[in-house]
């Protein structure tokens, strides 16, 4: 989850929810979680051309982009506790050189105390694709 002090707006990544699409299911035999079936996502802001569900899609898409400057947060709320062993993040910066940082936190309950798992600063240069 990326840290911010801004408010969150909920977006369900499940079918049947107005204005929010569904994310692709993992391929059979995949070890990736089907987040569209087991979690809800909240974001601090969202550019309409870069919706959050495209960040979790198995198909290539535009990815997610915030509609506002500043620190952002993407929060996954699982329906039931999950054992998460791997998180893969892709960062693409086609336009600007910038210093970025992401932080992953976990909480045992919604609204509960969170614990930082990893904090990673990195430099992005135009055209870079980083996979963490």
> SSE order in H/E notation?
EHEEEEEE
Overall 3D shape: globular
**Spatial strand sequence of the major β-sheet:** 1-2-3
Structural class: mainly beta
Total beta strands: 7
Walk me through the structure:
It is a single chain. By secondary structure, the protein is mainly β. It folds into two domains: 1-85, no CATH class; 87-132, no CATH class. The protein has one helix and seven strands. It has one helix at residues 35-38; strands spanning 9-11, 39-43, 74-78, 90-93, 98-107, 114-124, 128-131. The strands form three sheets. The chain has a three-stranded antiparallel sheet with strand order 1-2-3. A two-stranded antiparallel ribbon has the order 4-7. The longest helix has 4 residues, at 35-38. The two termini are 14 Å apart. The model is unreliable at 1-8 and 10-24 (pLDDT under 50).
Write the layout of secondary structure elements.
Elements: E1 9-11, H1 35-38, E2 39-43, E3 74-78, E4 90-93, E5 98-107, E6 114-124, E7 128-131
Fill in the keyword field for this structure.
3-stranded antiparallel beta sheet; two-stranded antiparallel sheet; 132 residues
Question: Would you summarize the structure shown here?
Answer:
The protein contains one helix and seven strands. By secondary structure, it is mainly beta.
